[in-house]
Specification:
Elements (H helix, E strand, L loop, with lengths): L2 H12 L4 H13 L1 H15 L13 H14 L5 H5 L1 H21 L9 H6 L3 H10 L1 H8 L3
Helix pairs in contact: 1-3, 1-8, 2-3
Length: 146
């Protein structure tokens, strides 16, 4: 089985193919016994990846979370002199202006960031899985080695 076919099968399992490509691949699976066996193997492995049922929170957990939230809300993180004095107000304004200036310097000159080169080259989940499995340490792990 070549890598391209394996990637297509994994994309089918993950729902990453459009309807036309998925239909064509399903037709190929019906016609090719090797492809069908590989697909069934991948499908059974995919089904085994289901997460376990969520566990219940321990008794009293929600009341402890609410108590901590109230405790944190009542704590005064900013000293009283900071916003009550003229120096504190100027310091707050200086920090705010510095943050805005840093943000303006980091923005691209045309005002928008071009993402097309990133999205066009980003691999699918199936491709990242296959790349990870081609790593020698991953192969040793699958074989039960050290």
């Amino acid at each position: 089985m070549d890598q391209k076919s394996t990637i297509e099968l994994m994309r089918l399992l993950h729902g990453e193919l459009d309807e036309v490509a998925a239909r064509r691949l399903r037709e190929r699976i019906v016609a090719d016994p090797d492809l069908k066996a590989t697909y069934e193997s991948l499908e059974s492995q995919w089904q085994e990846l289901q997460l376990p049922d969520p566990a219940e929170a321990p008794p009293g957990f929600s009341s402890r979370v609410v108590a901590r939230a109230k405790e944190s809300a009542s704590a005064d993180w900013v000293p009283a002199w900071w916003s009550g004095t003229l120096i504190g107000r100027f310091a707050s304004i200086a920090v705010l202006v510095g943050g805005i200036a840093a943000g303006v310097m980091l923005v691209p000159s045309n005002g928008t960031e071009e993402w097309s080169e990133f999205t066009a080259t980003e691999p699918s989940m199936a491709e990242t899985y296959l790349v990870a499995m081609q790593d020698s340490s991953a192969e040793q792990w699958l074989e039960g080695g050290q």
